[in-house]
Amino acid sequence: MTTTQGPARAPWFDLARHNVRWALPASLQAIMQNGLLDRTFQDSLVPQFLYAATATAEAWAGGLGDTKTFTRTGLMAPVPTAITGNDASTGTYGVEQWSVSMDQYGNAIDTNMLTSSMSLASKWLQDAKTLGVNAGQSINQLVRGRLYTAYAGGRTWATVSSSSSTSLTVQNAAGFGTVLSNGVQIPVSGATPLSITIAGVANTVTGVNTTTNVLTLGTAATVAVGAAVIASTAPVSVRATGANTAYDLTSSNTATFAMFRSAVARLRSMNVPTEGGYYVAHVDATTEAQLFSDADFKQALQGRVDSPIYRDLSIGRFGGIDWVRNMESPTVLGGSAGALTVHRPIVMGADCLVAAPFEGTASLLAGTGVEDVPLIEMIDVAPAVQVARIVRPPQDRLQQVLSTAWSYVGDFGVPSDALSGDNAVFKRAVVLEHA
Length: 435
Fold this sequence. Notes:
It comes from Streptomyces tateyamensis. By secondary structure, the protein is α+β, with helices and mostly antiparallel strands. It has helices at residues 15-18, 26-29, 113-118, 123-151, 257-269, 285-291, 295-302; strands at 56-57, 67-73, 95-101, 103-112, 155-157, 162-169, 178-181, 184-187, 194-198, 201-209, 214-223, 228-231, 238-239, 279-283, 314-318, 321-325, 331-334, 340-343, 346-348, 354-357, 375-382, 385-392, 401-413, 429-433.
């Protein structure tokens, strides 16, 4: 007997019949639907990672927790008088030091490849892309924190009133914890106090609790809420109407071109080098909108020269500044009621930030015999910053769960210039504050 066979039927998988989708987490059920699914994921709102792009690279090798110390020399005092006698007198110059520490940063995401294959659009590719955004944003905010801790530090206000007390609670204790001694930044103490003023009255800081933002004063003081507390080493910053701190600002104190001209004048007076002949201002959307309402800004903008450094992001190049849109610019709550959103653009000169990445992240497994098992690639998140993207083979019994991670080993340092110019420890950038 001869039998005939019909055409072979293609294998198929019915989600409704096999009910795999309902066993998955709710966050994944939405991308496994019975109807049609777009084969691509749409992008989220991704910020630009611009702070890390300002760093100068200084790669180094060391172990986790190691500290690398950089030394910078001061200048010799000028001698504009004629020599008396037969020989020149001798002069000296000071040295100062600043440090970076070797730390590791990273994040990871696991992708079930069975789920990824069922979802039509590759969830693994989207996971890897989203993880890359996470790496860039994490490093960018790490750099931003280092930068603003230095250049917005040493200037704050009292948040709790006190009566004849040596304890003072302030809005932010950053910039009050160290003092320069023999070229090295050391913790403040009774033996090494930091000179400050409280509402214009001289005092000292002998201890700092950065967790509670409490300063220990050398002399008991009666302090009202809002009193300006300024370290003798505080960097110069600019606010509308010459206010001492963000506490003194009101909603009418908006950004003006004059504030940025003051920042440029400060940097030039301290001989801060430029980036290609111009300083760089990072401004957010609110600052930009307010500047376009300022007549002086609009007049200067009319004759602008396009910036070759930030061609896609620059508002223009004028007034000695490359104006760059940066939506990651931070804000702080200020005003007398503590509810005013204060924007903090910054004008930066060259070498105000140093990236110190670990040298050799891509070759950690070299010579072990398993260097080809995981995929390790170095990804540029900024011109001076690379992170490692690591794809680990599945470790589960069904060989389905793939793990992707990013890692950055190193640190970012803010060089000091305490021995040149005035008393400010940091001089290569200026923070501006406005409502």
